[in-house]
Amino acid sequence: MLEANRRAHQHGIDLSKLPQLLDMNADTITDNVHAINANCPDDRLKFIFKHLIQHLHDFVRETSLTTEEWMTALEFLKETGKMCSDIRHEYILLSDTLGVSSLVDAINHAKPPGATEACVLGPFFTEDAHEFQQGDSIASEGKGDYMYVYGKVTNTKGEPIPGAIIDTWETDGHGLYDTQYADRTEPDCRGRLFSAEDGSYAFRAVVPVSYPIPSDGPVGKMVSALGRHVFRPAHLHMQIDAQGYEKLTTAFYPRGDPYLYSDAVFGVHSSLIVDLKPVTDKELSLKRGFKDGKTHMELHRDIVLATPEEGQAARKQTMPAVAQK
Amino acid sequence: MLEANRRAHQHGIDLSKLPQLLDMNADTITDNVHAINANCPDDRLKFIFKHLIQHLHDFVRETSLTTEEWMTALEFLKETGKMCSDIRHEYILLSDTLGVSSLVDAINHAKPPGATEACVLGPFFTEDAHEFQQGDSIASEGKGDYMYVYGKVTNTKGEPIPGAIIDTWETDGHGLYDTQYADRTEPDCRGRLFSAEDGSYAFRAVVPVSYPIPSDGPVGKMVSALGRHVFRPAHLHMQIDAQGYEKLTTAFYPRGDPYLYSDAVFGVHSSLIVDLKPVTDKELSLKRGFKDGKTHMELHRDIVLATPEEGQAARKQTMPAVAQK
């Protein structure tokens, strides 16, 4: 016994200070775990684990989970771990498909009324995108159907924001990001540009298309077992960063996509749905730089940035009382 | 759009039957995920995921989890996956240390009043244990301090159960199971015997000692961050299987162990605590087969098995109403 005390002390544990708890049954075990975790020196960690344990245990009790079901869950988590690599994070995909990523995003990136809503970053942003001038094309020739994107970056008062850094990326006409091609040498269908003096921006791109999330792993199997499909609706990513404003990570979703209402990762907000308008005016098409003045789609969208103060005020509303204590 | 419908059909999905949902914010996303999962063809799976999603999302909302904290959690899960191998299941250890294994056990193996309580199996049971006769020693010479274990196997009416298969296993005096030695050639400190005509059993063993759970991985780090130690109190495992009765997996914990009230995996029930009694009677010690009639500890414990009907009735009480619907 003294030996055990000595060993515990080596681990920085004073056994006499631990709660004297026993009798783990379905009714008492949760309080027992809380009591043992009450020694946690980090208040935030203690708070998080208190809620984690409570929900995990309530889940098991409410479902009267069987031993076999719980083992299936633990095996699923082990398999999910096996699927991870330096370039694949199957747990992020799990979080995405359970709607948790989108929820965490909604809580942490809530915006004030009038500001453009945020949505999940996704796994396809890269740091190596080229810089473009207004009107340039971010997609090389032959990558898909032509699309012209333009609008204005302003604050919530409607004042233009010049010099905002605009990062944008999208799939090609095959539903693939450039990084999904094994022979990628250059960035494509992605680029960085800056808003003009009057806050305006414009660039050429291709019409993005819907695509499946990686579905050859445990998460894909889970999604299928739940009777769901694995597709994301088409979208154009945009990330806007301007001094004095909160960085905005968002995306625009063309109306009419059949997956718009069943996004595999719950990313769509109705305020981010845009109408693509066909432009058949050959003169305008030539002026915008499209080859042979071909018919193209037009995406017109203004972007409204929030200040850090406006963002903070909005987030206060999304944070439940318990977490503000 | 037609192309997307065609691709969805290839996955067995009828898009027109999916819920038409949008606007994922902190208040609405949970219902959205429920609605999408409502197509699940397996009722039990649907029920489990409904509760899983609700608790996972409530947890995130109640803690106003930050993006960084959620990424830390996902990285932790990824690291836990990396620690798994054919002989190590770090997720089981995670489940153990969060009290979930013990809770699942309590729900699934609840026993009627009077029957011996169950507790977690643990990872150290093996199939290769040798068979022993009454009075034999399951531990080879020099493995620890002598212990004599005896008692009677009965049903809840007190009637003896003959021919019950008794599997038992324990640590040696160093706090290690035989399987933790790299040079293991034979099973040791484990064995199988059968109860006699009058239900009695007796065998020699060594006094088990407390030991740390594997703490070199992410779970060990988590337990330390929570301000907890990593020790399990000393115990002797027993698993009893007799025709007409429920198989019982349990363990007996000698009173006085300093970790008894803070078991790292929440396995102890007070009804499973036993008093070890020193036996100094040389004659008795010789008769029991101990070398030179040395002083030894005595563990006297009767075991009461439940019938499947008795067990089922007990479990009905531990299963909340919601799961019985």
Automatic annotation (TrEMBL), chains A, B:
One of its GO terms (molecular function) is catechol 1,2-dioxygenase activity. Residues 42-116 form the Catechol dioxygenase N-terminal domain. InterPro entries: Catechol_dOase_N, Intradiol_dOase_C, Intradiol_dOase_core, Intradiol_RC_Dioxygenase. It comes from the Eukaryota. One of its GO terms (biological process) is catechol-containing compound metabolic process. Keywords: Dioxygenase, Iron, Metal-binding, Oxidoreductase. Residues 122-305 form the Intradiol ring-cleavage dioxygenases domain. Transmembrane segments: none annotated. Its cofactor is Fe(3+). Pfam families: Dioxygenase_C (PF00775), Dioxygenase_N (PF04444). Belongs to the intradiol ring-cleavage dioxygenase family. This is Intradiol ring-cleavage dioxygenase. It comes from Lentinula raphanica.
